[in-house]
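Design job #97: recover the sequence.
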């Protein structure tokens, strides 16, 4: 079977896919991308198994082995939903990621502009400091490198003797507790 390589330019995003089906439903064009999807914009690359894009709504969903990679961090998830109108990206199910100083996991990650909201079993491990943080939810301000975890927040120091601290919430300022 020969795969068809499709190039679309939507809002300065280069999209490639193994196959493309365009359906018009109630006057709306829907793009079904299959057999591997890659989106490239600026210095960001997003890959997944499949995707759907609603042209008039400027709303899309990628699913199956979603991976977003930038020069400074990477995020993996089962699915990604993007709302172009308000620059909102939602990662769902089995979300994990890394940058040069930390690893994180959560059930969902919602990014609006430069603010990331994590929900469901949030775990953050600071590599250089041997610190692990756990909570039910968290918020991180990407450009300011500050954040807060809350609802049953715990911090465990893993150097020497193990120490665990518990609180309703914990505030991070410039990547420190």
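Job complete. Output follows.
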């Amino acid at each position: 079977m020969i795969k068809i390589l499709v190039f679309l330019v939507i809002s300065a995003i280069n999209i490639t896919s193994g196959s493309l089906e365009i359906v018009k439903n109630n006057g709306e064009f829907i793009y079904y991308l299959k057999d591997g999807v890659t989106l490239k914009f600026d210095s960001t690359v997003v890959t997944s198994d499949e995707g759907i894009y609603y042209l008039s709504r400027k709303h899309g969903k990628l699913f199956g082995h979603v991976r977003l990679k930038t020069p400074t961090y990477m995020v993996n998830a089962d699915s990604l939903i993007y709302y172009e109108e308000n620059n909102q990206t939602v990662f769902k199910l089995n979300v994990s990621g890394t940058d040069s100083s930390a690893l994180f996991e959560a059930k969902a990650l919602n990014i609006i502009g430069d603010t990331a909201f994590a929900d469901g079993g949030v775990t953050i491990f600071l590599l250089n400091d041997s610190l692990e943080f756990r909570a039910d939810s968290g918020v991180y301000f990407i450009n300011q490198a500050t954040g807060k975890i809350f609802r049953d927040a715990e911090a465990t120091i893993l150097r020497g003797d193990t120490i665990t601290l518990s609180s309703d919430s914990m505030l991070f300022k410039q990547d420190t507790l």
